[in-house]
Amino acid sequence: MADGAGGSPARPGAAAPGMSVYTEALGQAICRRVLAGESLRAICAEPGAPHRTTLRGWMARHPEFAQGLVASQQAARLAWRRRDRACFAHLAARPKPPRGGKPSTYTPAMGEAICARLMEGESLTAIARDPAMPAYATILGWVRRHPEFEDMYAQARQVQADYFCDEARDVALAATPETVWVARLCFSVIRWQAARLAPRKYVERLAVMEANEARRRAEAEAAAQRPDRLICVTRFERSPDGKTILAVPPRNAEEEARWEAAHGKPYDGPLYQVVDRWAAR
């Protein structure tokens, strides 16, 4: 009887007729596939391939097949290890990325483009809405992290204040009786922006002086309305005989008489200055 042959009915998934019989060519083909890196599980799972139990039987009955299959498995494992080592060496040789997250996408050309649009009166929110430009928070982050862009940004804002001043004049000259109220609103907003960007240049000094003077007058009036208050701290103690409670300084004529009766020295002055006896303590 041939190897693996029998009279039992074929089970589902069994090898095709002729594949359950060992041949030297079939054994060499399996060893070549294992040497190439395929696993026995994958080879045996193919339709018509011999079952793994059949391969174990072949290895038990054919020593040359067993030796070739074991040698192929060892060579395949060594090849996998060599490939892993080469991959690890390649990864170790690559330059490490800079720490702190992704590298900045800032470029001097992008910074100059943003500042140029600012100097032409465009708002930063409008620039950030452009798909070709970075987001609003990204631009402000560049201002904090890149000193050269921070200087350009500050200069662009100063020039933008001059642009707003000229724009306010254009808005005022273009106003008509029908659009005067809208033009007045636009003029006020533009003037406010220019004053905030360059306060030393565009804030109306007369208005500032009037506001400061009004504040000083209000403070003076409030101070004049407040009455002068005198805080007097009173101290209580017993007389030398231990029977009378004395107040220092006395709050009325009766307490003053008690003090004179106890010590024989009256107070002088309206604020009842403490006598030498109390000053020495």
Structural class: mainly alpha
Could you describe the largest sheet, including whether it forms a barrel?
Answer: 2 strands, antiparallel
At the first level of CATH, the class of the largest domain is Mainly Alpha
Distance between the termini: 131 Å
General form:
elongated
What fraction of residues sit in β-strands? under 5%
Tally of alpha and pi helices: 13
How would you describe what is shown here?
By secondary structure, the protein is an all-alpha fold. The protein folds into three domains: 24-93, Homeodomain-like (Arc Repressor Mutant, subunit A, Orthogonal Bundle), CATH 1.10.10.60; 108-198, Homeodomain-like (Arc Repressor Mutant, subunit A, Orthogonal Bundle); 235-280, no CATH class. Helices cover 61% and strands 3% of the residues. The chain is built from 13 helices and two strands; from the N terminus they run H-H-H-H-H-H-H-H-H-H-H-E-E-H-H. The protein has a two-stranded antiparallel ribbon with strand order 1-2.
Keywords:
about 280 residues, mainly alpha, Arc Repressor Mutant, subunit A, 3 domains, two-stranded antiparallel sheet, 2 strands, disordered N terminus
